[in-house]
Amino acid sequence: MDKKQTNTDQILKGLLDTLVLSVLVRGENYGFGIREALHEQLGEEASIVKEATLYPLLHRLEKKELLHAYRQPGARGTPRKYYQITDSGREFLVQQTQAWEKVIGLLNRSIFSDKE
Amino acid sequence: MKWYAFTRFPSFRFETSLNTEYPAINAFLEQLDQQLVGAKSVRRLTLEEARDHLLEHTESLVDKSKAPPEAAQMAIASFGSPEEHSKVQRKERLKLFSRMATSFGLMFAFLMTIFNVLGGPIEELNLALQAKLFVFYALFYGILMGYWFTFGFAQAKPTQSKSVVDSGDELKVYSGTSSKVAAVFLGLVMGTIGIASILGAIEIGFMQSNGTIVNVLLAILALQMAVGSPVAFGQYLLSKDTLKIQMLGRKEEVPLTSILQIETVAKWKRFFRMRIGEPFIIHWQDGEQEKQTMILVNGEMHNSDQLLANLREQADNSSTENPS
Questions:
Q1: What DSSP string runs through B105-155?
Q2: Cα–Cα distance, A87 to B14 (Å, whole number)
Q3: Which residues does A contribute to its contact with B (CB < 8 Å)?
Q4: Which end of chain A is less enclosed by CB atoms within 10 A, N or C?
Q5: For B156-188, how does the pLDDT look when each residue is reduced to its tens digit (9 = 90+)?
Q6: Pairing mode, strands A67-73 and A79-85
Q7: A93, pLDDT greater than 70
């Protein structure tokens, strides 16, 4: 993988926290449900959401207390784990959204305005 | 043999009850299981989540007219390799072990050192020996307790859905039989130590050689554990309107619509009072008065996570309706 690809992955990785929280702010959900919601939102760009990174991300957000999780009996014979956003998670989402809006504003005024 | 194989004691094999109707998914789960750490109940947490995800994805592809074997292979390819997922689980468990071993080890080492220091004449205190004993206690208790909480223990299996209250039933939060047996044992042992320490503090019995201060400290710690152990015999019942708390010596009801906030007790506050579980404070409105009710939940209680999820939702709804 070349350095440009790695830098892009790092940027997208930072965005994934925000994307996952934006799904959960609409209501609690489980792993595959979150994946489907993200795929619906992102369309062709959905490949950035790798399932191998989704669950570690959810566990990391849970450890930071941005999410709570609970298990309950599932329809497939084993418990299903659900994730619920916390107040801290909502605050973090607001902060991250504002930060990304700022980034978009800066890019629009600089690099993207040059392109036009 | 991988270094982590011993953590899988006593259940080293894949649990075939997790098998599905898709052989490819079964093979994936078995490969994943081989690379996970922890006893069966710990490994199940990862395997169940993976199984649920793969089945959902497979069946969504079958709904889109994919042949089942092809759908299963596509779901597995999208999910990532067993190596990727197991590496994450091992890393998470190692971090948990480090945290648990450090906190339990230091706690026990400090307590034992305090008892050793206060239990004898200060002029006979051997600092070098105490330092070695401190390290020994920290390592011994830290590794023992860290191992148990990381590789041996997992949350009790949920038996009811969170939404059961919506259909008019009660969500029951309770401890299983083995927890009750352990609670009786703990209560008896800690109760005996507590009483013996009190007697020792007034120079009666075999514990009098510890000295008054050590005996008083031991009595406080032991009796807290003894008094706390009956939590295993209590239960919480959540209906659509009310949370009923039914504990030994305590019965209380909290109307759900009056809940304002669920507060997690800060870790430093928990240090001063030993409890068998994690305490949460429910802030609720009783007429003009704001009240606080504590509930204690632990990993051995069935459906405790669903209870907390319901209570948090209720508190969120209250703050949305009545923003301060």
A1: HHHHHHHHHHHHHHTS-GGG--HHHHHHHHHHHHHHHHHHHHHIIIII--P
A2: 39
A3: 28, 30-32, 35-36, 50-52, 55-56, 59, 68-74, 76, 78-82, 84, 86-87
A4: C
A5: 889 999 888 888 899 999 999 989 999 999 999
A6: antiparallel
A7: yes
